């Protein structure tokens, strides 16, 4: 005898696009495979068996539910269970993040402007907030060449705190190089670097500005490394989750999970208590504002990818002195934000409710 739930998968996060949602809950169809069984029930609901498959209609009423399929034949039973989350208050929302960041902090440390937002980079982000209500999440490095976060003054601490409702900082890596610094790194290595960034950020920006959701540099980390970060409070990670030909920007996840995340907004790893969210667009990877919006049009047509929209751009492309510089990156960034706004998305930070809800 065999029984296995195949959809939703263990760790799936379901929202209004995955069934019919009303005041009673989220009505979904549980699917699976079965053999040599007389009956199958799912949490007490009798399933319909057709050949080697079964389906059962079930209504989620709680944020978290264990779905248990029970196959029975001649008094013998076999069970299979998956745990799923219901994103109960889901709505179209986007998170805007900046990656590989440290140079704007070096500018502030060297130039000591009157306000943080006299810095051109942060000033641009404040303009996006004023025009579109955009909240900004910044993944930062500890060091760049002869600068490190110890040189960042704490004289702007009150201004960081005053703007923490829309401007957040988080750990990214010790530095831009080497590439893939945590792909095979020990837990001790990633913890050392994490604590360097965290402790200095708390010193100059305050706890209110620190986020426990992040994107690790190159989206890589061993299971033990990510587990160590979870023990420090990091509860969620973003990545591209590229499934082929080789797995990339997917942390420690296997091929099946990477492929699932590549085509879905989010997934929960119950084995490590870490929530993963998939990036939808790297803005600087598109050549023009029109290409940015064309890509978002495509993502927006997929209900499994478009409820939680992840928009990200790298700091290097704003810097005239670097070879990465793209003169039109501000226009491309605004095009992405404008697209999200015009399509009814709300800007969120993930520390508010369940991923901004």
Key descriptive features of the protein:
357 residues, alpha/beta, Immunoglobulin-like, TIM Barrel, 2 domains, six-stranded parallel beta sheet, five-stranded antiparallel beta sheet, 22 strands
State the separation between the terminal residues, measured CA to CA: 42 Å
- The unreliable regions are none
Q: Tell how many strands the DSSP assignment holds.
A: 22
Rg (C-alpha, Å): 22 Å
Q: State which percent range the strand residues make up.
A: 25-35%
Query: How many structural domains does the protein architecture include?
Result: 2
For the record, the CATH class of the largest domain is Alpha Beta
Assembly category: single chain
